[in-house]
């Protein structure tokens, strides 16, 4: 879930020792394999590097709140450390956390047994594990874009090919071309990777769209990996606690893996804790994969997760209320600027808006950080469908947003 | 590095909701892909499950000390949490940790620039990342066994094929058949994965063997991934702080990736923190892979790592002195038992000894836990070359070892 990726920049190098072994080092050829070299690197990092040396930058480019994890969650980790909980845990997570998550998911999305829940070392780690479970070399994967790059790149590490289907953009903001998606989900497709609420657009898949996609994937035996880490960052009708989820529709033992994270709903980005809900028939194999990827999440981090899930509901609700205020505040301010086309989405924590002159959004974002001290993420970082747009994370207080809008306004007026 | 993998055992299942979507769930087919189903699962877990319900088990089956992480390291994490260090970090790790590790590695193995060092979410995560960097579907990998299963299984997740070369066993304990290994390292081999000091045997590769292997791999452009997580658990001549390392011989920019961990030298198994030393030309690609695997290690865990590396040297030395005492104590006690053939190795924290009647070591270990309350790891868990042996982790105080030996002695006398 991280797109924070600042370079540690230039550091002077001591000389390495001369190699006292026969043969040529061949250092020029010591490179990664082609599939890895071809993976996209972060354009947000490129923008941040362009701002290196700019003293006063207001960064809104990362997918992260500027607020620290709540004290009661941090204290749970501290308590576990004081008690000496510093040992390996079960590959699938400590029992109290799996139990707490099973209750939490059951409450939001219907009965979910403990055996369907596994703890992972971050939401992105759950995506990697899900991909490892179901795709290998030559498999066909479909993803809906614009999209946080990780979902598109992960299957490629395993040798799969990824086809993308673009969301539409119009008066109602971002919308799914359902026909187009179903057409792309050919019978030989192995996996659909879909993220709703969506990073970067805030697009939220409707219940009816989920129903149609699920029925189609069932018919053809296509796996769905649903990245639902923003489900609680949902601005629906009063009383709606969560965005529509595939878990509301599917049985727990069919070809669906739902990925989630502690990062967004409990402000735990730096903790690297996530989970997945997956068919029980996968769990033995998942345990093996966890063993071979990270073995387990840190024990005291998992204890903090228990407290977050069991005692964090009031916090999450208040966080979402704050985010809604920030979203509306920023959208109103941006709507007043010339050359800005902004729609207000129902999910996540970003405004992904059209900006005149952003046809080369990477260049524009580099100029914005250098010339205006404003850090935004270029739309092209989320695939070619995002070109012409920029992403602004509004997970901060309105005064900070105002300062950013003021910088954008001055920049637009000056060019 | 975990082989702790106890099942959470039977838990009653609530009914899952009936699926309100058309199409068949096809749950019978919702299984992992074949390559993943074929991965080995932990035989240690099988043994532990066999002991389920046995009230009084003395477990020596895990690769983990029974001591808690030192307080000064835990307090560093607590301090970072109190300061609010709960955000994403750079993919390759926080600068203070990379700097501390570069100094540490330089001190042990010669000049190593910061840019050659990357922080990972555990040693095993470093192995997974290293494999992702260099091997894909169809690639040929060679590994030396008996061996902790992870090194053999990880490349298979990526579609590679793994050939194993067996260590010899004789009067001098476990030894490398160097000729055999070089012969197996054919020019079309992509990668050698080698673990020294070795889990489970305690075998330590000599400097001359490393020199010969490095020269051969250079000649044919073969990558080496050296798992050196036990390097500090080395019982050499007085003043020798570490086992021979490939880093002592190689330049920093050739085809060598050295993997290490905080788990063993600082008793931080449950923290999931590791690092690798790799060619600088790989680092941009490694950053992408870290982003797509876990994004980063938890920020406050990395801060604890800084304190471990910078202030933990006296602790590590005292730990290794204690382990040497435990090793000698256990070896002497075992040598007095009938049917035991035990050699004293120079590294790691295990005795991997031959036991009469252990030709089916999995069955024997199940019987040992059920009938004698003694938890050992079966040799077959480490590949067929380990059959006939059992592994005993001696990372605990001598009194506890005595209690275990007493149980083994009674069991052997009774059969």
TrEMBL record, chains A, B:
Protein name: Aminotransferase
Residue span(s) of domain Aminotransferase class I/classII large: 69-408
GO biological process, one term: amino acid metabolic process
PANTHER family: AMINOTRANSFERASE, ASPARTATE AMINOTRANSFERASE
Organism of origin: Paraburkholderia caffeinitolerans
Top EC class of this enzyme: transferase
Enzyme Commission number(s) from the entry: 2.6.1.-
Lineage: Bacteria, Pseudomonadati, Pseudomonadota, Betaproteobacteria, Burkholderiales
Superkingdom of the source species: Bacteria
